[in-house]
From TrEMBL:
This is histidine kinase. It comes from Ileibacterium valens. It holds the Pfam family DUF4118. One of its GO terms (cellular component) is plasma membrane. It catalyses: ATP + protein L-histidine = ADP + protein N-phospho-L-histidine. It comes from the Bacteria. The keyword Transmembrane applies. It is an enzyme of class 2 (transferase). Its EC number is 2.7.13.3.
């Protein structure tokens, strides 16, 4: 208000000075016997000068009106009276008044446009400056401090910046910056959910208890809000409010960029950790596999040599069984690391499905010699394109899983089915307790395990089923699980295409 009064007083002095100067010039010129029309031009020029050096139209129009009266009073016969003897002078005065007003309005508008252009240029430079500094900020705290500083310097606003948690609830404290430039951390009186606040679309901000609030909106969530004192906002013009919105958008973009940078860094660290773990597992597993194969071969030979010694034969069998289990685990770990690194190679050839299953059962019989496995062999030969080693590993994993969940003495069934849709299915069926309904969604998750029939069977690491699923997907097939109908137990079914798809030939 004081600035407006000061500006108005200054405009009054400028307009008065120009009028007095113009009148003195006209008095001098009149003594040189210039015509009255020439004197009028001096006042028109003074009106234009007034319009260019004062705010608005008021003083320029007032200048024109007083000038018309002055010409009549000082220079038109009879002088020093307001009477008009010649109607031509009335017309001349009226035209002079209109021309002065039109020219003054145009000059004033030109000046206003110039000022607006200068202000917009200044605002654009400042927005670029704040954008550059926010882009260079590396932390949320730095972004907030830069923001409150520019709100104060550019717009003279006291600013409160409050952030919220991912669920939209406000934090317990917020940053406040006064007009003196000092920042302080204040406590939030009432925590609330910013996301659920209704936005006044007509104004672009929220009406809070203490502040008018502009939400800091990111691409995925709301980071918080920028709050300003209501009395300071209400006296602002639309251009200032638009500038505030643009600056708030700059702050939102900076917070959004910082959020994604942190997210990207976390993903990069996780990938590096996973890569390190995979490399370590692959290296250790690869180094263990060779001595394990030697232990298995030696223990098998030892069993034959001590067959006449029951106790020694029993211990040799245990060594072979444990090393065989550990060898299977190492194979699964190696397959898992290859899958995670995308290095699992699928070498497909046309194989007889029955032969692959026989090889799998023979491997399981060595590991579990007391487990009865019933193989329902097909009446006709069924072939399919596959990587026989990987499919064999899948069937071994399924039979091994069935053994863990089968009561002692109960058989495991392996069934081949030739489907009508050019696919072949292999079902591994046990007669245990079945699968809990809550476990179905997690069956093929890495490291997920369920309780087995005994402590020995509980040694699994939850790798067999997820690896089997990945192998089947790589073959263009599928794997599914279900509980047996009308009997106890569960079954796992793998399905393979009988022919290679055209796009992979």
């Amino acid at each position: 208000m004081k600035e407006k009064k000061k500006s108005s007083y200054s405009d009054f002095l400028i307009a008065s000075g120009i009028w007095i100067t113009t009148t003195l010039i006209c008095l001098v010129v009149a003594r040189l016997n210039f015509q009255e029309s020439n004197l009028v031009l001096f006042y028109v020029l003074g009106s234009i000068i007034t319009a260019l050096n004062t705010d608005g139209y008021f003083y320029a129009v007032l200048f024109s009106l007083i000038s018309m009266i002055a010409v009549n009073f000082y220079f038109i016969y009879p002088q020093y009276t307001f009477s008009v003897m010649d109607l031509d002078h009335v017309v001349s005065f009226s035209i002079m008044f209109l021309i002065s007003i039109i020219v003054s309005v145009l000059a004033s508008r030109s000046k206003m446009n110039e000022r607006m252009a200068i202000k917009r240029e200044k605002d654009a430079k400042q927005l670029y400056e704040i954008s550059s500094k926010l882009s260079a900020a590396v932390s949320v705290e730095e972004i907030l401090n830069i923001s409150v500083t520019y709100f104060r310097e550019m717009l003279g606003l006291q600013t409160a910046l409050l952030l919220c948690s991912p669920d939209g609830m406000t934090q317990d404290t917020y940053l406040f910056c006064g007009l003196d430039g000092n920042t302080e951390v204040r406590n939030v009186l009432v925590n609330r959910n910013i996301v659920k606040c209704d936005k006044d679309s007509g104004k672009g901000y929220l009406i809070g208890n203490l502040y008018y609030e502009w939400p800091l909106v990111g691409s995925e969530s709301i980071f918080g809000y920028a709050g300003f004192i209501p009395e300071e906002i209400e006296k602002r013009n639309p251009e200032d409010l638009n500038l505030i919105s643009q600056m708030v958008n700059q702050v939102s973009l900076a917070l959004d960029r910082n959020y994604f940078m942190k997210k990207e860094e976390e993903i990069r660290q996780e990938n590096n950790e996973e890569k390190y773990k995979s490399n370590l597992l692959r290296s250790v597993s690869h180094d263990i596999r060779t001595p394990l194969a030697g232990i298995m071969g030696t223990s098998e030979l030892l069993k034959e040599q001590v067959a006449h010694l029951p106790e020694a034969h029993k211990q040799a069998s245990i060594i072979y069984k444990e090393s065989s289990w550990l060898y299977g685990l190492v194979q699964n770990i190696l397959s898992l690391t290859r899958l995670q690194n995308g290095k699992l190679k699928i070498l497909k050839e046309i194989e007889v499905v029955e032969d692959v299953i026989h090889a799998s059962i023979e491997s399981i019989n060595i590991r579990y010699p007391d487990q009865e496995i019933i193989f329902n062999e097909p009446t006709e030969v069924i072939t399919a394109p596959m990587d026989s080693k990987l499919i064999q590993q899948t069937i071994i994993n399924l039979i091994d899983n069935a053994h863990k969940h089968s009561p002692e003495g109960q058989p495991i069934e392996v069934i081949i089915e030739d489907n009508f849709d050019d696919t072949v299915s292999v079902m591994v069926k046990d007669h245990g307790t079945g699968i809990d309904q809550k476990a179905f969604s997690m069956l093929f998750s890495t490291f997920y395990t369920t309780h087995s029939r005994d402590a020995e069977s509980n040694r699994g690491f939850g790798l067999g089923l997820p690896i089997s699923e990945a192998i089947m997907k790589a073959h263009g097939g599928s794997i599914s699980a279900a509980n047996n109908e009308n009997e106890s137990g569960a079954n796992f079914t793998i399905t393979l295409p009988k022919h290679e798809s055209d796009d992979k030939k």
